[in-house]
Design a protein that fits this description.
Largest sheet: 7 strands, mixed, barrel
Number of helices: 3
Strand content: 35-45%
Order of helices and strands: EEHEEEEHHEEEEE
Radius of gyration: 18 Å
Structural class: mainly beta
Shape: globular
Strand order of the largest sheet: 3-4-5-6-7-9-10
Number of strands: 11
C-alpha cells in the first residue's frame, strides 16, 4: 500500500496490518479520520502521525516521558477495554506537538494519544484532572542558539 502525503510524498507500507493504526475514538477535531501511520523522518524524539485518509494531515508527536519525567495519569478501565489492553508494556503514549515558532513549541499533555502496540488500536484520551494543559511548553534548544556566530573573537 502507498500512502500519499503532502509533506513527505509517497510512503510505501510493507505490512499494512502492522503499520496502520486505527483510532477507535478519533483525534479531537478530526472525527471523520480514523486510520494513521507513525513514522520517523530523522533520528530524534519526534515522530509523525500521518492520516492515510487525508494526505494534508500530519501531526508531530513525541513520547511525553522524554521531556516530562513526572508526567503520569491513570487510564480509566473504559479505555483499557476499548483498546483491548492486556499488558502495560503493550501501551505506547504520545502527545501532539504544536510548533508556532522556534520559541513557542507546546505539547498537549491534557489529551494524550494512547496506542496498543499489539493490535494497533488507539484513542485520544482527555484527562479529567487539571494538572496538565493543551499548551504545555516544550523547552527545546534551538540549533545554533547560544553559539557565537563569528568564531573569531576580535
Amino acid at each position: 500500500m502507498i500512502v500519499n502525503t503532502k509533506r513527505f510524498g509517497e510512503i510505501k507500507l510493507i505490512d499494512n496490518e502492522k503499520q496502520i493504526i486505527t483510532f477507535t475514538s478519533p483525534i479531537l477535531g478530526f472525527s471523520n479520520l480514523s486510520s494513521y501511520i507513525v513514522f520517523q523522518e530523522e533520528s530524534g524524539p519526534f515522530e509523525y502521525l500521518q492520516s492515510i485518509e487525508d494526505e494534508d494531515l500530519t501531526f508531530i508527536i513525541v513520547d511525553p516521558f522524554i521531556f516530562f519525567s513526572d508526567y503520569e495519569f491513570q487510564l480509566d478501565s473504559h479505555w483499557i477495554d476499548a483498546l483491548e489492553i492486556k499488558n502495560d508494556l503493550d501501551v505506547s503514549v504520545r502527545v501532539i506537538v504544536t510548533v508556532r515558532s522556534a520559541n513557542d513549541i507546546t505539547c498537549n499533555l491534557k489529551a494524550p494519544l494512547i496506542m496498543n502496540k499489539q493490535n494497533n488500536l488507539a484513542a485520544q484520551v482527555v484527562l479529567d484532572h487539571g494538572r496538565y494543559s493543551t499548551r504545555h511548553s516544550l523547552a527545546v534548544e534551538v540549533k545554533g542558539e547560544g553559539e557565537h556566530v563569528d568564531p573569531i573573537e576580535k
